């Protein structure tokens, strides 16, 4: 049985990591998937790998026009939408004393403003009974070294999502927060940890996780499927921690 048969799903940052794994799973489950990313070649390659007629759209979530153009495309091609996953994100770990205003703005333009204006542009197309998933982070609730700016940008989107769960009540649109712990994706290469220090870093992260290891993108994709499908039909406004228990550790 396909759990998303006939559904139309947009996944920002769907050309890599958690977003791509989710796009693959949603497509296998019968959804028409539309992924976004910043680079044409990577988006095209990902859409081909996802298959099932997946469509790739290039754009920067920090640009308001991108959301408007994406909404126009979805409206013209499909008329409506069922699932919007605001997943694109960036990270750069820096102690607060060293954060530049450019770095601060980049986190908030992508992780926070990109989510807000994406939902503002796409939510009007979501059919009654559809749903929104916002990818936040364990860092939004747990203090981790040098995560302050990233944590703030991710805590804000969790707050947006809780408010939207109430705002969209008249249209019965569920809004939930997917909160990953450390997951093996390309984003880990952007943490400022050198290749040489990477094994030590990964061992250290694993030691903090009760599951004893980092997560895999597929494990987040399955959680997203739960939230997006009828399996999660009575789940609304929650923060789903998919982190091997790290929130508690
Ligand atoms: P990733 O680097 O593989 O994916 C990030 C995606 O976001 C990429 O597709 C990238 O193209 C896209 N992106 C970044 N900036 C963009 C912009 N300005 N416009 C459009 N697209 C943009 O990393 P991932 O781990 O799959 O990250 C997915 C989400 O999960 C992010 O929001 C991230 O903050 C969050 N997250 C990841 C982890 C982890 O350990 N991997 C932990 C907690 C939260």
From TrEMBL:
Keywords: Oxidoreductase. It comes from the Bacteria. InterPro entries: KR_dom (IPR057326), NAD(P)-bd_dom_sf (IPR036291), Sc_DH/Rdtase_CS (IPR020904), SDR_fam (IPR002347). Pfam families: adh_short_C2. Its EC number is 1.1.1.47. GO terms for molecular function: glucose 1-dehydrogenase [NAD(P)+] activity. Residues 7-169 form the Ketoreductase domain. SMART domains: PKS_KR. PANTHER family: EG:BACR7A4.14 PROTEIN-RELATED (PTHR43975:SF2), ZGC:101858 (PTHR43975). This is Glucose 1-dehydrogenase. It comes from Mycoplana rhizolycopersici. The lineage of its organism: Bacteria, Pseudomonadati, Pseudomonadota, Alphaproteobacteria, Hyphomicrobiales.
């Amino acid at each position: 049985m396909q759990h998303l048969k006939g559904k139309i799903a947009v996944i920002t940052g769907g050309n890599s990591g958690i977003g791509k794994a989710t796009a693959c799973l949603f497509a296998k489950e019968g959804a028409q998937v539309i992924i976004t990313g910043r680079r044409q070649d990577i988006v095209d390659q990902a859409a081909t790998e996802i298959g099932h007629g997946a469509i790739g759209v290039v754009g920067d979530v920090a640009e308001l026009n991108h959301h408007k153009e994406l909404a126009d495309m979805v409206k013209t091609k499909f008329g409506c939408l069922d699932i919007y996953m605001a997943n694109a994100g960036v990270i750069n770990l820096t102690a607060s004393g060293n954060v530049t205003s450019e770095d601060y703005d980049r986190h908030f333009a992508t992780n926070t403003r990109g989510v807000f204006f994406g939902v503002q542009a796409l939510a009007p197309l979501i059919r009654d009974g559809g749903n929104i998933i916002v990818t936040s982070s364990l860092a939004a609730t747990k203090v981790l070294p040098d995560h302050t700016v990233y944590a703030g940008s991710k805590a804000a989107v969790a707050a947006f999502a809780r408010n939207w769960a109430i705002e969209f009540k008249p249209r019965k649109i569920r809004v939930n927060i997917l909160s990953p712990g450390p997951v093996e994706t390309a984003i880990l290469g952007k943490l400022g940890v050198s290749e040489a220090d990477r094994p030590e870093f990964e061992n250290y992260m694993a030691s903090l996780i009760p599951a004893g290891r980092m997560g895999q993108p597929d494990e987040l994709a399955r959680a997203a499927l739960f939230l997006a499908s009828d399996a999660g039909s009575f789940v609304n406004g929650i923060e789903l921690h998919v982190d091997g228990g790290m929130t508690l550790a």
